[in-house]
Amino acid sequence: MAFKKITEQASLYDDLEKKSVKELLTEINREDQKVALAVEKTIPQIEQLVSQIIPRMEKGGRIFYLGAGTSGRLGVLDASEIPPTYGMPPSLVIGLIAGGDVALRNPVENAEDNIEAGWKDLEAHQVNKQDIVIGIAASGTTPYVIGALREARKRGILTASISSNPDSPMAQEAEIAIEMIVGPEFVTGSSRMKSGTGQKMILNMITTTTMIKLGHVKGNWMVNMQLTNAKLVDRGTRMIAEELQIDYQQAQHLLLLHGSVKKAIEAGNKTK
Questions:
Q1: Do 72 and 121 form a contact (C-beta atoms < 8 A)?
Q2: Which end of the chain is more exposed for a tag (fewer CB within 10 A), N or C?
Q3: Residue 2: is its pLDDT beyond 70?
């Protein structure tokens, strides 16, 4: 059966330029409501992936995201949020984008069409069998990602893909294929919309669940977050005060003394 790009099919809406602002917003929102349902159908594949990520990361493995354009930017975004949110070093979840960091803000001509570049970018990080390589591409046809997954899988590295088309060339290169079928975009072919939203949701699910199972959440609190501003110091202080049943000033003293909510709670429990 020939491969069909649902992501390139015509929008279900037409004459967009003739619609009112309210009509456009309402119809975009109507389409966005389909995304969570599409993501829900992929939970078995996400569960399979996360269940294999956890033991690898417990042994020092890393997650690598690879993508181009919006997909690459979303991978870099998710990776960049892990250190401040969970206190993890930036070397454990790494986002790679075709064309390098300049492509985060500017298109880099033909970068995504180089089938060898993705693997070269992984090699620069000494990728190995303990690591996980996750390719992200709405179309499922990006050569930069396909080449990286192919080479990684040849070498026994766990590979996964996130796409918005069924049975894509990229999915065929991955051990675990997450296929989130959101249908045609509101603006035909604009995969930064529903596909991008769904990708962000899936990346959130992967890393949040992994961080919880690795012990970086207690109850529902981010106990290892970096204390980089007054808001986070206040949040951490309230966590400690609630957990140890002490007043705000005592909690803040413990937090600033020990540098993290987790360490402060451990120290507070020892003195009880």
A1: no
A2: N
A3: no
- pLDDT for residue 272: 65
Which residues in 157-181 are b (16+ Cβ under 10 Å) and which e? bbbbbbbbbeebbbbebbbbbbbbb
The counts of H helices and E strands in the chain are 10, 7
- pTM beyond 0.90: the answer is yes
**Residues recognised as catalytic:** 81, 112
Picking from 156, 165, 114, the residue whose alpha carbon sits closest to that of residue 136 is: 165
**CA–CA gap between residue 212 and residue 204 (Å, rounded):** 12
The residue-averaged pLDDT of 198-206 equals 98
pLDDT tens-digit series, residues 204-226? 999 999 999 999 998 898 888 88
Are 27 and 13 spatial neighbours (Cβ–Cβ below 8 Å)? Answer: yes
pLDDT at 1 over 60: no
> Which residue has tokens 């909690």?
251
**What does the DSSP assignment read for 74-134?**
HHHHHHHHHHHHH---TTSEEEEETT-GGGGTS--TTGGG-TTHHHHHHHTTT--TT-EEE
**What are the residues facing 110 on neighbouring strands?**
none
Q: How crowded is the C-beta side of 72, counted as CA atoms within 13 Å?
A: 25
- From 210, 55, 56, 49, select the one nearest 130 (Cα to Cα): 56
CA quadruple 71, 16, 24, 36: dihedral, nearest 10: -40
Task: Dump pLDDT digits (tens) for 167-196.
Answer: 999 999 999 999 999 999 999 999 999 999
- The per-residue pLDDT for 29 is 98
| Phi/psi-derived region of residue 121, left when phi > 0, alpha when psi is between -120 and 50, beta in every other case | alpha
**Where are the extended beta strands (E) located within 140-242?**
158-163, 176-179, 217-218, 221-222
